[in-house]
Amino acid sequence: MKRFYTLLILLIGIGTLKGFAQTTNDPEAKKVLDGVSAKFKTFKTVKATFTYKVENAAGKVLSSKNGAVSMKGTKYRVTIVGQEIFCDGVNVWTYDKAANEVTITKLDNSSNTLTPQKLFTNFYDKDFLYKLNGEKKQGTKTLQEIEMTPTDKSKPFHKVYVYVDKTGKTLISTKVMEKSGTRYSYTVNTLTPNGTIDDKQFVFDAKKYPGVEVVDLR
Questions:
Q1: Does domain 2-216 have CATH number 2.50.20.10?
Q2: 49-105 pLDDT, tens per residue?
Q3: What's the pLDDT score for residue 99?
Q4: Torsion over CA: 110, 114, 116, 121 (sign)
Q5: Residues linked to residue 100 through DSSP beta bridges, in sequence order
Q6: Which residues sit opposite 52 in a β-bridge?
Q7: pLDDT (tens digit per residue) in 176-213
Q8: Phi, psi angles (nearest 5°) of residue 123
Q9: How many angstroms separate the Cα of 38 from the Cα of each of 34, 43, 101, 170?
Q10: Are 157 and 148 in contact (CB under 8 A)?
């Protein structure tokens, strides 16, 4: 399961950023983030593809993986090379292809729980100071860059950069800057809202994984 959790290093860095209304020092940045959250919450379902990249301090790419995520209400499914996560809103199945092992846990609905939905909505909170750095062009899009700094200096990262499509009000990419110099980036390549997604997609079907070892921690 170790390789799976390397994927979540970035997601944890972003997914714990939520609800930053009390300590903000930049109202314009808050308007941008609130707009992204409000837009995403109008979607009944979402399918997205993404690229997860790790770079060293010099900007050299150490690894790059493509993945996909589907969301419907509290249900979600994340797929990346060798790993899958299924959640039906109650249970979470974490599958490691190399080990042919799936771990089952109960979904924790507390505010500290990480889910893909939070990545797209609640990614700014009282534990961060943020500011709008400005805008830049990326192809035909105008991106707004928001810089976030954790107030807790014991965090392993010292900066998080969020890039938002100004017109579409959607999250384009995030970058987490670790104190060690390592950089983790997450780029949304495609985002398709309001399509039809069968609920079966969010449940792990052991019959499709012959010989899988099941670790039930519920």
A1: yes
A2: 999 899 998 889 999 999 999 999 989 999 988 899 999 999 999 999 999 999 999
A3: 96
A4: positive
A5: none
A6: 65, 186
A7: 888 989 998 889 899 999 999 999 999 999 999 999 99
A8: -120, 35
A9: 6, 10, 37, 10
A10: no
Q: What is the 3-state secondary structure (H, E, C) of the chain?
A: CHHHHHHHHHHHHHHCCCECCCCCCCHHHHHHHHHHHHHHHCCCEEEEEEEEEEECCCCCEEEEEEEEEEEECCEEEEEECCEEEEECCCEEEEEECCCCEEEEEECCCCCCCCCHHHHHCCCCECCEEEEEEEEEEECCEEEEEEEEEECCCCCCEEEEEEEEECCCCEEEEEEEEECCCCEEEEEEEEEEECCCCCHHHHCCCHHHCCCCEEEECC
pLDDT band for position 12 (cuts 50, 70, 90): very low
Can you give the residue ranges of every domain in the chain? 2-216
